[in-house]
Amino acid sequence: MPSLDSVGQQVGDFVVIALLFFGLLPLFGPLDVLLPILGYDAPRWLGYVLAGAAGAALSWIRPLRLRLVVRVWLVGLVTLVVFITALVFFELDGNAVGIVVAWGVGLGLGVGLAYPPLWRAAEARLRVD
User: Fold this and answer.
1) Which of 35, 50, 51, 90 is deepest in the core (most CB within 10 A)?
2) What is the C-alpha separation between 103 and 80, in angstroms, rounded?
3) Among candidates 46, 51, 49, 53, which has minimal Cα distance to 73?
């Protein structure tokens, strides 16, 4: 019979993987809007499959730590907010190029906010001695 510690560890690992998966979902959300404009009838579960593949790749490349999950959530949140804001305010509902640009800007801002070496590089450039 497994000990209570191993059960707790397994539940904790499952929660971290679930949080990583749900943090990755907003990164692929713009595909639901973009693919029909391009003429592809993609299944509704495509974003889930891509998020699962990205999560598997991330967990294979790097060990899962809470810091990685927080960074993924930050990138996903920024991407979602920028994309939805651009979609609504700039009325990008039929504009494939605008959707790709909004998606790219959201991803770029999210990665920039979540990647500490970029913070240090920006601070070094902006520092006045």
Assistant:
1) 51
2) 8
3) 51
Distance of CA 45 to the CA centre of its chain: 16
Which two structure tokens, joined as six digits, stand for 32? 């639901």
The token duo for 7 is 């059960």
CA distances from 88 to 12, 15, 91 (A): 38, 33, 5
User: What per-residue string of b and e applies to 40-59 under the rule 16 or more CB within 10 Å gives b?
Assistant: eeeeeeebeeebbebbeebe
What pLDDT score does 53 carry? 94
More confident call, 30 vs 71: 30
Sequence-distant (6+) residues with CB within 8 A of 68 are: 20, 58, 62
